[in-house]
Write a structure and sequence with these properties.
Main location: membrane
CATH class of the largest domain: Mainly Alpha
Largest sheet: none
CATH topology of the largest domain: Growth Hormone, Chain: A
Number of domains: 2
Subcellular location: Cell membrane
InterPro entries: MFS, MFS_dom, MFS_trans_sf, MFS_Transporters, Tet-R_TetA/multi-R_MdtG-like
Oligomer: single chain
GO molecular function: transmembrane transporter activity
Protein name: MFS transporter
Low-confidence stretches: 383-387, 390-395
Radius of gyration: 20 Å
Amino acid sequence: MTELEHPPHRYWPLYGAGFVTAFGAHSIAANLGTYGQQQHVSLLTIGLLLAVYDAAEVVLKPVFGTLVDRVGPRPVLLGGLIGFACASAAFVAAGDPGLLGVARFGQGAAAAAFSPAASTLVARMQSPGGHARRFGSYGAWKGLGYTLGPLLGGALVTIGGYGALFASLGVLALVVAAWVGWVVPRMEPLPRRRSTVVDLARRLTRRAFVVPTVILAASTAALSIGVGFFPILAASAGANALLSGALVSALSACAALSQPWAGRALDARRITYRAGALAGLTLCASGFLVAGLLAGPAGLIVGAIAIGLGAGVLTPLGFAALAASAPPERLGETMGSAEVGRELGDAGGPILVGAVAAAATLGVGCVVAAALMAAVAVVSTGAGQAGDPPTSGAS
């Protein structure tokens, strides 16, 4: 899956690309409340602005994943980063806050290109036996973007408005694009045999694809539920804004820090795919149970830490299994399609919990989230299923 061993510094721009998409998405999303107050828009409009970035990714990631396999990952990565910078610059040049949704869609479309391209390069540049470690680092940098986005984005909006935020995002994307152009090697597309829609359906319904994708979806669902609803639970328990923010930061930091450890452990065969997935899903389920059943800040803190650690363990395991089991010439298609599963988990998890909370209470919603994590654990690691999917140690 790789032509030669690449030194660690050649992966750093790929981690930077992961940081760009995470930082860009959350720095804007976390400050849409301020935008809504300034522009006097409805909650429905805020909801649409939140969704448009993810919607662009869901629709376009499989398309760009297939393009990665056709033309090679590096051109798609560069094009996506430059497109992200152009979408950001266009918003600044227009000077019209009402165009925020258009700019955010453009950024999402660009991220749909460079995200599967970056993950494909991580997989192709690393020899078998090291995928989990590399994806752990890639996920950690995305986690750093999720953690810093709300904080730095808020500071930029406070200092210079949304123009300052979008200008900074454009510069960041250009810097990473130049870094990619300077450091990341060109990798030619691999020869592919002719494929039909039936072949594609067969590839995307194999257990080796479905199980890691479901686990990745559970990971993003757990994170998005925690980030979205734990501050509400904290406020209802009488906590102040500082503690609410600390909960989100603790969850994100635990997810970011646990990913490299989990990746290294899988590559060193200290854990198996099945044991790691079971441990991660159990941590997520336990975290939601504690948060839902034990009212008060202490239960929420324990729950946030458990969910962050669990989601962080799941992410590199899922990507490593996909990288090891996918046909090398179809890596872009595989990563792009799996990313759709992650986005659906990111959106579907909060919708499910929100619907349950509207019908009952948010505590019950957390219990339902715990049951969902347990169900994924049964489906992906339960008795009677096939053995461990191939990990990055598989050839």
